[in-house]
Amino acid sequence: MRRFWLAGPGARRDENLSVFRDIAQIHDEMSRLFDEFATGLFPASRPAEEVVAPRMDLYRKDGKIHLDMEIPGIDPKEVDLKVYPDRVVFKAERKEEKKEESERFFRIERSRGSFYREIPMPVEIDPEGAEAKIRNGLLTLVLPEKQSVDNGRKLEIKTEE
Q1: Edge to edge, what strands does the sheet with 87-94 contain?
Q2: CA quadruple 91, 48, 5, 17: dihedral positive or negative?
């Protein structure tokens, strides 16, 4: 999978955070590659991330960062969503339905339980302008990029004699 930086020429990134973002991206890519390898060896197995964390897309559109996450079957009231300038934290729970004793299952594939996902942002965002909506099990976040104001100061050069 090819990765693209969302920060264009002239974009300012906090150098300390960019190192950690780079490491997180490498970690994600290694996990994905290992999951593909393991799934190829054992087709009946599913990658752990598929069970633990909902799938998502992260992209830029119209000058804003968009995050689309699949959360079918999760009550929006059970979602804890926090937006920070450098990341989005998603916590939710897909509760298990009560089963009657007369039910006899032949196969159980739907995942249940708690989900947690911390998604690093490729650029600094403005949490105050963030919006979230859900439709047909697709959670959509629109995250405006933080506008940096360059309040540079003119500095006079003093001559010493």
Answers
A1: 80-83, 87-94, 113-120
A2: positive
Side chain identity at 60, as an amino acid letter? R
Tokens of 146: 């933080």
pLDDT band at 93 (very low <50, low <70, confident <90, very high): confident
Instruction: Tell me how far apart the alpha carbons of residues 123 and 66 are, in angstroms, rounded to a whole number.
Output: 12
pLDDT tens-digit readout, 19-48: 778 888 888 888 877 776 765 555 445 444
**Both structure tokens of 36:** 């593909």
**Is residue 41 classed as helix, strand or coil in its secondary structure?**
helix
Closest CA to 68 of 123, 11, 143: 143
CA 114 to the chain's CA centroid: 16
Residue 155: which pLDDT band, with cuts at 50, 70 and 90? confident
Where are the alpha helices (H) located in the chain, listed in sequence order? 15-41, 48-52
Number of CB atoms found within 10 A of residue 130's CB = 19
| Domain definitions of the chain by residue range | 14-52, 54-97+111-147
Strands 87-94 and 64-70: unpaired
Q: Which CATH class is domain 54-97+111-147?
A: mainly beta
- The CA-to-CA distance between both ends of the chain, in Å, stands at 62
